[in-house]
Inverse folding.
């Protein structure tokens, strides 16, 4: 089978395509013919050895896929031929992948494989972030940075599914269009976002900030919150990890909450299964419909990963593996 392979830590241009032996499922594993694989910011970081997960070289990247089940354990609820999406942690950008049945969800016929590949990492993370860590309510207003990205668009759709109002922050007019198409109520530029958010909330401020970006906008994000607001720390695409003067938290009774989906979910067997059940309900209701941006062939996997590094991604970047 053909796979994407990271053989050195020189960045996206160092990702190549190689041939490997076909996979064999161990007891309890799902074997999947991969049709589409999602690209995430951690893939970019892994090409540089900058992610917290540092596999031994060479390795096959790719934490999420959509495809067709080749074989499944008898009691898993899956059968040969099922269309599925699944979290794989690694090894997903390949013609075949293995995973645990708990990490997979059946795809509705209305979903393309590319949309399926957009689900696992970002929708599981944002379900955890908004519902569990953020305590989101229908009456909340949620401000989402990086709103046209993978995490951003997933956050918009899960917040809207709950009934909240969403203010999307994105750096270009094209990205703001993507955020609005994903379901955001408002889409505003990065410059002056704090004042604009205050205006849009009648001077009150927002209840939740979703921050996958970090950097120097962090203080203004804290200032955008109303009393008892929560800032969800998701990631640092800006490259700078912000620091916080805790008097700001005291002054307005606000919380900064870390969101580490993997650390939480993998330590709790069964948790991802409950998340998939929650997401399946949202898919059935039509609330979740992932916006797909660029689709690349497997041979151009390096370019696909570089798109995230160049801050160009609009919607989910996907590899069409077959
Ligand atoms: N905590 C968790 O459990 C968890 C899980 C999954 C992912 N993450 C993290 O979430 C973050 C977002 O991932 P993603 O897959 O959504 O990435 P993405 O699709 O590339 O979106 C990231 C967004 O960040 C913004 N950005 C600001 N400065 C940037 C820069 N210098 N370079 C690139 N982007 C920049 C861009 O929006 P604008 O141009 O509009 O500003 C971009 O759309 C990453 O840090 C990732 O590691 C965390």
């Amino acid at each position: 089978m053909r796979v994407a392979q990271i053989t050195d830590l020189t960045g996206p241009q160092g990702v190549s395509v190689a041939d490997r032996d076909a996979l064999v499922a161990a007891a309890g594993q799902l074997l999947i013919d991969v049709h589409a694989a999602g690209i995430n910011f951690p893939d970019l970081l892994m090409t540089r050895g900058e992610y917290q997960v540092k596999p031994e070289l060479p390795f096959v990247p790719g934490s999420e896929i959509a495809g067709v089940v080749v074989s499944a354990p008898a009691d898993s609820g899956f059968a040969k031929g099922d269309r599925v999406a699944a979290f794989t942690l690694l090894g997903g950008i390949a013609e075949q992948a293995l995973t645990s049945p708990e990490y997979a969800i059946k795809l509705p016929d209305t979903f393309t494989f590319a949309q399926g590949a957009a689900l696992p990492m970002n929708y599981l993370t944002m379900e955890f972030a908004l519902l569990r860590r953020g305590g989101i309510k229908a009456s909340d207003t949620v401000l989402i940075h990086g709103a046209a990205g993978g995490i951003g668009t997933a956050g918009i759709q899960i917040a809207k599914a709950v009934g909240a109002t969403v203010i999307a922050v994105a750096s270009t007019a094209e990205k703001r269009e993507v955020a609005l198409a994903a379901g955001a109520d408002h889409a505003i530029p990065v410059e002056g976002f704090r004042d604009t958010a205050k205006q849009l909330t009648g001077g009150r401020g927002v209840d939740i900030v979703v921050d996958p970006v970090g950097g120097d906008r962090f203080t203004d994000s804290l200032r955008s919150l109303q009393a008892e607001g929560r800032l969800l720390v998701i990631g640092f695409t800006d490259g700078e990890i912000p620091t916080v003067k805790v008097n700001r938290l005291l002054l307005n009774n606000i919380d900064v909450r870390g969101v580490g989906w993997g650390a939480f979910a993998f330590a709790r067997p069964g948790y991802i299964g409950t998340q998939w059940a929650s997401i399946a309900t949202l898919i059935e209701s039509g609330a979740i419909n992932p916006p797909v941006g660029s689709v690349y062939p497997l041979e151009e996997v390096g370019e696909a990963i570089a798109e995230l590094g160049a801050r160009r991604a609009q919607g989910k970047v996907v590899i069409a593996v077959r």
User: Anything to note?
Assistant: The mean pLDDT is 97.
